[in-house]
Amino acid sequence: MINADRLWRNIETLSTFTDPANPWTRRAFTPLHQQGRRWLEEQMELAGLVVSMDGAGNLIGRRNGRKPNLHPLVTGSHTDTVNAGGRFDGILGVLAGIEVAHSLNEHELELDHPLEVIDFMSEEPSDYGISCVGSRAMAGKLDAVMLSSPDHTGETLAQGLSRIGAQPSTIASAKRANKSTAAYLELHIEQGPVLEQKDLPIGVVTHIVGGRRIAVTILGTAGHSGTTPMPLRSDALVAASLLVAGAYRQATRLNGSEHYVVATVGRLLVEPNMANAIPGKVDLVLEVRSDSNSVLDSFPEDLLSVIAADIEPLDVQISMKELTRSDVTNCSSELIQVIDAVASELGYGTMHLPSGAGHDGVYISQTGPIGMIFVPCLNGRSHCPEEWAALEAVQAGTQVLLHSLLKLDRTLSQP
Ligand code: GLV
Ligand code: MN
Ligand code: MN
Q: What is the whole-number distance in angstroms between the Cα of residue 124 and the centre of ligand 2?
């Protein structure tokens, strides 16, 4: 019932809003992201949605329902990308939501509930170190400390939001109350290899793992690389390398049948970063994700104690500051059942699986029940230029999204 060709064209078009030197990059808060959003706004309007932006920079396309007192059915995702990220992470969910609105219009289907298609602001870690900026604000979790967090130029997140036309002074009004969302349903590529390996078109997400991001600063002593004898060095990068390897070993040891545990240092800044200077300072971000809140609680501190003896001779100072934390988020069993039923009616094979990736649903779950539909992506690759999903996968996921929303509209509007 959806128009897969139109959806595919929209995916192609939005993905061309990329830094040409670094495909496929559309970082939040950049002019490119804003250009992409202007195009997106037009697409929302063409689909009959009334567009607004809240104080946290969420772009919201709304379609009224027959019963205006009902809370909205919400769908969407994000149009920002990681550096050299892909052409599907995020934009699929937003453009599929717009395609749902087109389909409803073309089939003259009125919903009881209002429908909102949201492009959440900066789901990926922004240059201010904060991810899920928009959905956090909707949950009332974008606090003053986060808003004052600076990027490398010293601009704060609040200033960045003002620059892109949001009004951070009105951020409190972006907050949505508990139970103010009838249901939130997001379509996303799996970003892993499981569905492809099992040759299944639809994944029904059971829960989203929790995560912590910790900013770690290691202070050593910069000096001349040719003249400072080895025993007299305090090399911050050598200490960082012990921490990186230790995190890798610790996550590998903890991960298993009982718990899912992954840890990554994906961002690292070295000063002075010269071939002939001893690194005096390293800033890095340690990220750990798990389906166990107790693993999240203890991982960074355990790591520091395990590597302490090896690091001690380097005479560096290590400080840690938590940037973000999210606990494990469960998808609603009612939404899981609806997605299961719809996929089976449409003849698609399914499996239940957790999401190792974070999503805006983590925060939107504080406003109502959430569900997520996954579709396979090529070789399970994501957050890299090779990220790819087939038209058939995109089509199947969007059909399931449309029909799940239709079913939820019927079941949730019963008194
Ligand atoms: C989002 O893509 C995340 O899981 O970091
Ligand atoms: Mn992502
Ligand atoms: Mn995403």
A: 6
